């Protein structure tokens, strides 16, 4: 059994005894009170300190220990009944609970007497007792774990694309720079603008247009009239090729009769070589 060192002020249990040993020179081998008397437990045994060795033993203390141990063997059942605050624990330290109800050693273990009983202090109460010291079953507190809270997944709202607004079809669209001088062949640069107009007409399936060709003032009037009609028909043929019904388009030639710029300049003449597409329904 592991012997523990008591603090200076300690009360062994409900009843304790102190006595002066015959040989006071070896009292550091035993626990003493503030008066230098060796502390004895309820059975009259001297309480050994951690400094005790067979060489420092006091004969009178050890004689009582031998007698008490012998008596204990013979009357074990009586001792168990008489000791109300003891727990028979062999080689099993009991940690102090910090409530100062028991004497403790330098390892913070509860000091026990030679019979394994925990040594109480004067501050001991049933409220600060240690269950193992009092022979009671230890209550293990099981933490209450709250059930996990189910979290509904966050669903992002469906993104509805905004409807694409079609640009309105202009009442009159003037297409310039589509033709070279004396030519009714569409330039490649004209295709992009006419493709856009084809989309306009597809978005308005009930619409109809009038296509009018124009020329600059160079050349004879009859020649320019014929050239303007060819230019109007060239635009119509391109739109038909893009899926627009021919009966939705009518063509006309205005020749050189409706200039929108000065035919005396190169830039003005290029401006007048045009095709107008007018929305009529």
Can you walk me through this structure?
The chain starts with 16 loop residues before the first strand and ends with a strand. It has two domains: 1-135, no CATH class; 172-279, 60s Ribosomal Protein L30, Chain: A (2-Layer Sandwich). Helices cover 23% and strands 10% of the residues. Strand 4 (209-213), helix 4 and strand 5 (249-253) form a beta-alpha-beta unit. It has five helices and six strands; from the N terminus they run E-E-H-H-E-H-E-H-E-H-E. It has 281 residues and is α+β, with helices and mostly antiparallel strands. The strands form two sheets. A four-stranded mixed beta sheet has the order 3-6-4-5.
Q: Key features?
A:
alpha+beta; 5 helices; four-stranded mixed sheet; 60s Ribosomal Protein L30, Chain: A
């Amino acid at each position: 059994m592991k012997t523990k060192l008591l603090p200076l002020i300690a009360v062994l249990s409900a009843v304790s005894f102190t006595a002066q040993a015959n040989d006071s020179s070896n009292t550091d081998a035993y626990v003493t009170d503030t008066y230098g008397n060796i502390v004895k437990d309820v059975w009259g045994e001297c309480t050994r300190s951690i400094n005790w060795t067979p060489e420092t033993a006091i004969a009178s203390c050890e004689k009582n220990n031998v007698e008490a141990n012998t008596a204990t063997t013979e009357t074990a059942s009586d001792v168990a009944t008489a000791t109300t605050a003891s727990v028979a624990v062999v080689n099993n330290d009991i940690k102090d609970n910090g409530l100062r109800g028991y004497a403790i050693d330098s390892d913070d273990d509860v000091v026990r007497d030679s019979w394994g009983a925990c040594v109480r202090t004067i501050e001991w109460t049933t409220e600060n007792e240690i269950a193992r010291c009092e022979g009671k079953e230890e209550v293990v507190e099981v933490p209450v774990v709250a059930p996990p809270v189910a979290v509904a997944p966050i669903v992002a709202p469906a993104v509805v694309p905004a409807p694409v607004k079609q640009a309105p079809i202009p009442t009159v669209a003037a297409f310039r720079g589509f033709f070279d001088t004396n030519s009714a062949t569409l330039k490649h640069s004209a295709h992009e603008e006419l493709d856009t107009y084809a989309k306009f007409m597809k978005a308005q399936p009930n619409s109809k247009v009038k296509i009018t060709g124009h020329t600059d003032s160079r050349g004879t009037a009859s020649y320019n009239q014929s050239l303007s009609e060819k230019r109007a028909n060239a635009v119509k043929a391109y739109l038909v090729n893009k899926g627009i019904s021919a009966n939705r388009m009518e063509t006309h030639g205005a020749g050189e009769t409706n200039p929108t710029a000065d035919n005396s300049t190169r830039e003005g003449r290029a401006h007048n070589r045009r095709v107008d597409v007018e929305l009529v329904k």
